[in-house]
Amino acid sequence: MSNVVLGVGGGIAAYKVASLLRLFTEHGHDVTVVPTASALQFVGAPTWSALSGKPVATDVWSDVARVPHVRIGQQADLVVVAPATADLIARAAAGMADDLLTTTLLTASCPVVFAPAMHTEMWLHPATQANVATLVGRGVHVIPPASGRLTGADTGPGRLPEPGDLYAACLHLLESAAPAAPSRGVLAGRHVVVSAGGTREPLDPVRFLGNRSSGKQGYALAAVAAARGARVTLVSANVTLPVPAGVDVVEVGTAIELQDAVTRAAKDADVVVMAAAVADFRPRTVASSKIKKTHAETVAGPDESAPTIELVRNPDILAGLVQARGDRARGDRLRPIVVGFAAETGDAAGSVLDLAREKLVRKGCDLLVANEVGDGVAFGTDTNTVHLFYRPGLAGAPGERTAGPAPKEAIAAVVWDGIQPLL
Ligand code: C5P
Prior knowledge:
Elements: E1 3-8, H1 14-26, E2 30-35, H2 39-42, H3 45-52, H4 68-74, E3 78-84, H5 86-93, H6 100-107, E4 112-116, H7 120-124, H8 126-137, E5 141-142, E6 146-149, E7 155-159, H9 163-176, E8 191-197, E9 201-202, E10 208-209, H10 216-227, E11 231-237, E12 247-252, H11 255-266, E13 271-274, E14 281-283, E15 297-298, E16 301-302, E17 311-313, H12 317-324, E18 337-344, H13 352-363, E19 367-372, E20 383-390, E21 401-407, H14 408-419
Parallel strand pairs: 1-2, 1-3, 3-4, 4-5, 8-11, 8-13, 11-12, 13-18, 18-19
Antiparallel strand pairs: 6-7, 9-10, 14-17, 15-16, 19-20, 20-21
Helix pairs in contact: 1-3, 1-9, 4-6, 5-8, 10-14
């Protein structure tokens, strides 16, 4: 994984940065924390050391023989400064080198992110704004502060964004960074197919049966695969999100269209990830004109009747992909690797995890990514919690794992980390 330097400035929001550090380490990144002297007034060195699993360097005079003021910056894949205080921004903009963090900033050639947090007056002051503009002009990525409650009773722009949002922004930079990021290129030469969104099954020219999938998780999976060097075909069902860079999109509407597009793209694919919510049923007939209410008067009063819609089953695309690979011994590695998603609510018949294990066996895919969905959970939101289950006995499969709640970009990285050992 990546070498991240987490520069912590002396602001009260330093306490939130402890959670950001956890998100990095939980996802396998190697983090070197470089707090300023004032940051340590807010959160002490033992906290940073315990959460990063490493000693914390706080000044340029410790461990001089290893030249930390040059080495830390040179070895970084990403430097994150949070909270970036007005003072720290000013010192960085002036190119000062009066502590370990500012020397690190001068030696880093990787992407650098600043997440400013301070009182609204300090943030809006022309001096701070000019310093921020100087940093942006030099290629520094600045995550604007959020608006809301500040330390006292006052509110306004100046809050440090939530750790999950900061993590998502950092991960995006790491994934799309120059060759410095070691994760880049691991999928080079591979063709991956990702389905995303939700199918719509028409009833008549204006109505359809649909679902609440936003496509965010599928799009994040496509973006991460492209950032890791794969050729990506994204089969997208009714999604309004921007297309990730370097991804080929095939737009579809119904389950049958999605099946056609996925089956065609899967012919030379190394991996197919079925993240789309595919309707299990479709109306048997599609009316050629809009289905109307009747307004006839009957002896019993106004006609309140409603049509009955007869449904037929859609093909199970995932199961079809598995069958098309042929029937071989359980441990065999087959092509393409087929990954299913199981969005479950859990019911009297079993928990989300029980249902997912049963589905893995029934569908026969290599990896099943189970996630809990429901009102306000997963669908349409920016975060997800997932459990990864592998086909029993599959050669090269790592153990089951759980990830989240985390931004969907972070979940996408975990899913690809879980697929790569199978390739
Ligand atoms: O059976 P269930 O719909 O819960 O399974 C979900 C998984 O199966 C997802 O990966 C989804 O894309 C896929 N699926 C499919 N064809 C269907 C229904 C679901 O490929 N008709």
